[in-house]
Structure formats: C-alpha cells, structure tokens
Amino acid sequence: MKKLFGNAIVGQSGGPTAAINATLSGVIRGALECDAIEKIYGAKNGIEGVLARTIIDLSDMTEEKLSLLETTPAAALGSCRKKLPKNFDGENRKIFEDIIAVFKEYNIRYFFYIGGNDSMDTVAKLSRFTKEIGYEMHVMGVPKTIDNDLAGTDHTPGYGSAAKYIATTMQEIIRDTAVYTVKAVTIVEIMGRDAGWLTAAAALPSLYSDVTPDLVYLPEVAFDYDKFYEDIEKAFEKHPNVVVAVSEGVRTADGIYVGEGTQSGATDAFGHKYLSGTGKALELAVKDKFGCKVRSIELNLPQRCASHLSSKTDLDESVAIGRSAVWYAASGETGKMMIFTRMEGEKYEVGIDSADISGIANAVRSVPRSYINERGNGVTKECLSYIAPLIIGEPTLVYEGGLPKHFVF
Amino acid sequence: MKKLFGNAIVGQSGGPTAAINATLSGVIRGALECDAIEKIYGAKNGIEGVLARTIIDLSDMTEEKLSLLETTPAAALGSCRKKLPKNFDGENRKIFEDIIAVFKEYNIRYFFYIGGNDSMDTVAKLSRFTKEIGYEMHVMGVPKTIDNDLAGTDHTPGYGSAAKYIATTMQEIIRDTAVYTVKAVTIVEIMGRDAGWLTAAAALPSLYSDVTPDLVYLPEVAFDYDKFYEDIEKAFEKHPNVVVAVSEGVRTADGIYVGEGTQSGATDAFGHKYLSGTGKALELAVKDKFGCKVRSIELNLPQRCASHLSSKTDLDESVAIGRSAVWYAASGETGKMMIFTRMEGEKYEVGIDSADISGIANAVRSVPRSYINERGNGVTKECLSYIAPLIIGEPTLVYEGGLPKHFVF
Question: Could you say which of A35, A57, A98, A147 is catalytic?
Fold first, then answer.
C-alpha cells in the first residue's frame, strides 16, 4: 500500500478527563515515530481551532514534556463542543470546505480527533466529506469519555481514572460519615446522564474493604421513590449511617429525571437536558420522609479531572491507543475509531483495534441489566470484575511545593 | 516530681480529618513508650464511649497497624459532638461523676482528647472537675481541625492535608474550566464557618503555576454583592473562565450569611447555623446578573477526609504532637492543649509545646486582615507563605486493587 506523506493535526474535544492528555501524548509520540508524518500540529479548542487557525507545532515535544503532559488533567490543547452540520448540502457545505482549506494550507493528511460521542460524529462526517471531494486524508477518532458509554469498545480512556477517583472518594466519604452514631443518610451524586458506569464504580470498595455504599442507583433502571424509601429503611437496620450512590441521570418510570424538579429547562449545546439536582432532590425527599440528618454531595467536576488520583492502567492504555491511532492511520485507515478489546481469561489483557465509526457515533453503551441486581439498588460481582482492573496502579506524579505539577503549552 | 502510674484512654471528637488518626497513632505510640502508662485504651465515639463503656484495648497495636492507621481518614475510634454541661452544679454534676466512675473502674490516670474547639472545652471541664474532687489525673487536649481556627497554636493538625486537597483540586478545576472558550463562572464553595484559612489555601497554586482562582472571598471581610459583580466583570477582561473560591461562611455587612437564603433555620448540636448554600446562592446571583454559564461546586466532605492526598508534613506533625501529649502528661501537666510554635527564619521549623486551655476553648483564630488584600477579594503573599510549608510532602500509601487501604479497629 502506498504511504500517504504529509503533516498531521490532533485536536481534543468534549468534556475534560484525567486521561485525554495521555492520549494526546500517545498521538504525538506516534506521529514523531512515523516516517510518513513530517510535522505534528495541535489545533487549539478542537475543530474550532482548525477553523480559527489557532494551530501550534508539537514537533518539539521532548520526553520530559510528554511525560508531564500525561499526568496533566483536562485538555491541554483546549476543547470545544462544536457539532458539524448533518449534511454537506447548501449552506452547510461551507464549514466543511473551510476546514479542508486549512488542511490544504498546512498540508494536513492525518487528522486525529480525541473525544466522545459527539466528537466521533465529527470524525465520521469529515471522513465522508474528504472521500466525497477526493481529498486524500486519514481521519481517525480516538475515544475519550469518563462516562464509558461509547459503543464498540470494551471501555473508554478516561473511565478508569474517574472510576478510581469515585471509588476512593466514596470510601473516604463512608469512613467520614461512619464516625457518628446519629442516624443519617448521605447521598452522593455521580456523573452519568444515560449510563451508570461511573456510579457503578462507587461499589468497588466492597471488593477489598469493609465499606461500600448501601445503595447504588443507575439510570438503566427506572427509579421508584417508594422502593427507595424501603431500601433506606432496610439499610438503617444494618447501621445508622446510610450512604447512597446515585447517578445524576436516574429517571422515574415515566422518564422524568429525578433531578429535573430542582433544575428545569436548561439544555447544553447538543440539546441534552442540563441536570444538577438529583442528589439535592433526593436529599429533600429523604429529609421529608425520615426527618433524619441528610446530606447530599455532588462529586461534580473533580471526578473527571482529578489527575492526582488517576489510574496507571488508564493512562498507559490512553497513551497506547493514541499511538496506535497513528499506526492505523499510517497504514491507510480512515473514518475509524480506535477501540479496546478485552481478551478472554482470568488475567486482564487488552488489545487495540479499529472499528468503523458508523454505528459508534451517537450510540450509547449502557450498563447491561445483568450487571445490576434484581432490585435495581446495587451492582453485581460481574460488574465489579469488569471495572476492577481498570483502576489498578498509580502513576508517578511530579510534585512542586506539595502540588502536582502540570504541563502547559 | 512523682510519676503518676496507671492506665490511659484516648478519644476522638468533632469532625473527621485526614490527620486525626495520625494523632491517635502518636498518642498510642507515646503511651506504649511511656513507663508510667500500663495500658492504653480507646474510647469509641469520644466521651460518649467513656460513658457507654465502649472501650477497647489498644496495647496490641503493632508498627504495621499504626502506620496504616496514620493514612486512614476520618476517626478510626469514631467521634461525637457531645458537649458537657457548663458547670458541676445540681443535675449537671452527675455526668461528670459518671465519667469519673468509669475512669476509676479502668484505673484511668491519663485522658487524651483529640478534637477542635468544642473538644477542648471538654478537656477544660474534665480537668477542672478532677482537680475539684481530688481525683489525680492528667487530662490533655490534642488539637485537630481542618479549619485551622484554634487559638494558641501556629496551626492545627489536619489543616495542612485539607489545604493540600483544596489547592490540588482547585488547580484541577481551573484546568478543567479553562478548556472552553465560552464565558463562564465557576464558584467553588469551601468549608470554614468563621475562619477563611481553608479558602485561602485555594490560592496556593499561584505560587508554583500559571493558574489560580481569580477571586477569593473569606468570612473575615464583609461580602458585598456589588463589589463581587465588579470583580467578576474585571476578571472577564483577563479570560473567559472566571473561577471564584468562596468560604461557606461569608456574610454581608449586616451579618447575614450569603448561603442563608437557600438553607435557612437549621442549626447543629452546638447551635451553629447549618450552612450549605453559599456557592449555590452566588451561582444564582451571577446567572441573574451576567446571564452566562455558571456552575457552583461544593467541595463538601471530601475536603476533610481525603487521606489519599494528605500532606506528609501534616501527618508527621500530627503523630509528633500526639506523642508529645503523652510525654507532657507523664511529666505532670493537665488541663493543657498541645500546640505548634513556628520558629523564626526562612526555613520552616516547628516546635511542640503545651498551653493553658482556658482562653483556647471556644475562641476562634481568624485570618488576620493583613493576610487579605485591600479589596477583600484575594490573599496576600504573606498569607501563602504561612500556608505553603504545611502542604509539603506525600506520604507513602498502601494500595490494594487500586484503592488506598485503610485501618479498621
């Protein structure tokens, strides 16, 4: 196969994670190693930076810089939430032509886009458009999302670190709430609009310790207030400090978000409902019903960018999948998303592969019903066995003055 | 001086911290070393456990157990919020007599109480009562509070770890919010009812990095909404992502808590107003005023029990002050609280001493006005120089399955 020579550009898109910079480092490492790629550029703020020509040369990234980048949270190149038009007709066509104009200007033949569902949609469209106009180019998506809800891959880079943060913090919260003998309910709200993977991770401490949240509610099962009250009553029989892990996205059987009552109407750029009141709504409900001490804790942004507590497995895999994206692109692939495949067997082992992006973009991979207990208030051992290997290991961090040092472009 | 031979008991009280177990370990270490002390007991749930005789023998604590205890969050012995009666008259006398009865039963001659303001009040009263009735006993207080607001000591055990967590998390939140180019305000609510020490720590990243919260509001300065809006407008001139660190305890000039609007009436066992709505109240205010994207983040419980991110300096000092409490008690002191004194000079060095508890209990040490900038929206270099050494160093944690391992009695 004829190799395509030229420059490469990489961008980051969607919500920050603790591992997206590790994937960026992987792409840069791959590009620096690849003889078909002359220069590796970075687009600031994803596809917006391509259009705005806020493009920086990454060819001078040293081992020291790359290593620090890998333990830096959020998106070092900046991110965006821009969604490209549905088709290339009429007015819509212009934005695609503008992007290609920049690619031509910089002789870009490789485009790597690190992101979640919405970003894979961008990859799919750009790949289709370049094919349509006959501009020879390899467009590759590299997954990233703490939500772990991308289809086609065993798990997503960024999930393991978020899961480790959630499980560790959960363990600490349970220790904290257990010090008093007064009856109290603590409700911990965890991210996850449609998929409960992050909330499921809250139960990981049960594998190794004496503590675990008493109740775990995922969006995959309809939330029922009466059952919830019964669950709490039952948990009080065991100890006075009941801890609940709940996904921000839980809905009642009629499809209404539990958190909707306290935060209504607002939507994000993609039309997703903006939620932030699930923990608070349940706090008020429990206070009303039981009259006991209740506290709600929203793990909020720290759960997605706590690189001080990232999973070494996650970071190592994130670097590897970014690097592999370059190899796959250099070998001629385009319009693909890189994926993890898990090997069969007792020992955890992953392979890296590519998959066709159609069918991945805009699909959501939920927690299977078999991973949730019958009553819908906890996760199964099988579920925890799936998550457990993803949080293993602690990367070596560089500290300065007691604070983790971050890489800045 | 005649040595007092007998047994010792230690209890933990007040809110959990990441370092209170290190102090417990220090007390146990000191007691095991001290030839005047035969047995070292632990009272579960503080003074409540003395009264309930939920007392465990700690004499078999090995080096391995003690070391793991030191990096375990919350209060391994359990805690309480019990406040003893104001005087020993009439009915009040009974509870003091009940406590002494238990002490006599266990031949307790040394009582170590690890806690904050309210716990030091217990130490003061018990010390007075034992003197009054002529029961020979040494009652010593060992400070603990993330709030750093105890009088008489340079700083408090537990503060350094909380400060490290807050500064690290702040740094990560700022990186996270900086990835988008859309105008947005992020408000981070930090603990501290009356003193702004914890919130001040949010500005530590400015010492070593390119990021720092744009605005920092402490309860020591009256909060002014108009000035706040002006501050935000000014911050927007620098960049689109404005980050605010605010203490839960900020009040307007008329003494009304900013958070009171969203959470009114409730008080804790000591009659302190229960606050939890400061960040939320400011979020709504900013949304109303600027119409931009606003998010509030409450650091909540994790800031006080995140032992996975504790300060080695804090833990080492916490062990040392607990151990010293035993030495001081064995040398005949009673009714005292152990304190840190900071040596003059460039290099950070602390001494440990004891101080009379009257004047310490129930007093609050605020952030001095000179540590806050003139406008009241930030802290000075002097303030950061005071905090900086307290967060230095990372303890070695034991991990199991990717999660920090905790000690359990």
Answer: A147
Q: What is the pLDDT of residue A265?
A: 47
The pLDDT tens digits of the residues spanning A220-277 come to 999 999 999 999 999 999 999 999 999 999 999 999 999 875 444 444 445 555 455 8
Q: Which domains does chain B have, with CATH numbers?
A: 6-157+307-363+396-402 (3.40.50.450), 163-305 (3.40.50.460)
Q: What is the DSSP string of A91-129?
A: GGHHHHHHHHHHHHHTTEEEEEEEESHHHHHHHHHHHHH
Residues on chain B touching A172 (C-beta within 8 angstroms): 73-74, 301-302, 305-308
Given a contact cutoff of 8 angstroms between Cβ atoms, the answer to whether B80 and A181 are in contact is yes
Cβ separation A402–B408 shorter than 8 A: no
d(CA A13, CA A120) in angstroms, rounded, equals: 10
- Alpha helices in B137-277, H assignment, sequence order: 159-177, 197-201, 225-238
For residues B47 and B280, give the distance between their C-alpha atoms in angstroms, rounded to a whole number. Answer: 36
CA separation, residue B396 to residues A394, B70, B157 (Å): 12, 10, 18
Write down the pTM of the prediction.
0.96
Active site residue A268: no
Shortest distance between the Cα of A204 and any Cα of chain B, in A, equals: 9
Determine the angle formed by the axes of helices B20-33 and B63-70, rounding to 10 degrees.
150
The residue of chain B with its CA nearest to that of A402 is B392
Nearest-neighbour CA in chain B from A212: distance (Å): 13
Structure tokens given for B391: 């967060």
B297: chain A residues, CB-CB within 8 Å: 298, 300-302
Question: What pLDDT does residue A271 have?
Answer: 52
Contact A208 B173 (CB under 8 A): no
ipTM of the complex: 0.95
Answer whether residue A118 shows pLDDT above 90. no
The number of residues making up chain A comes to: 409
Per-residue pLDDT at A362 = 72
Mean pLDDT split into 10-residue runs, chain B, 409 residues? 89 96 98 97 97 97 98 97 92 96 98 92 95 96 95 96 98 96 96 96 97 98 98 97 97 91 48 67 92 95 97 98 98 96 95 90 89 98 98 98 97
Of the candidates A74, A87, A158, A97, the residue with the CA atom closest to the CA atom of residue A121:
A87
- How distant is the Cα of B73 from the closest Cα of chain A, in angstroms? 6
- Interface probe for B, chosen from A179, A270, A391 (most Cβ of B below 10 Å), is A179
- Closest-CA residue of A relative to B293 is A268
Phi, psi of A251 (to 5 degrees): -130, 150
Interface contact flag, A391 B404, Cβ < 8 Å? no
Q: Which residues pair with A354 in a beta bridge?
A: A338
Residues B406, A79: C-beta atoms closer than 8 Å: no
Would you call A388 and B401 a contact, using CB atoms and an 8 Å cutoff? yes
The DSSP line for A17-52 is -SSHHHHHHHHHHHHHH-TTEEEEEEETTHHHHHHT
- List all residues 6 or more positions away from A103 whose beta carbon is below 8 Å from its beta carbon: A9, A50, A111, A135, A137
Q: Do B168 and A403 touch (CB under 8 A)?
A: yes
What's A2's DSSP letter? -
CA angle A385, A388, A389 (to 5 degrees): 110
β-pair partners for A244: A187, A215
B5 to chain A, closest Cα gap in Å: 31
d(CA A104, CA A106): 5
**Percentages (nearest 5) of helix, strand, coil residues in chain B:** 40, 20, 40
Using CA coordinates, name the residue in chain A closest to B400.
A208
Q: Do B180 and A400 touch (CB under 8 A)?
A: no
Q: In a 3-state reduction of DSSP, which class is residue A143? A: strand
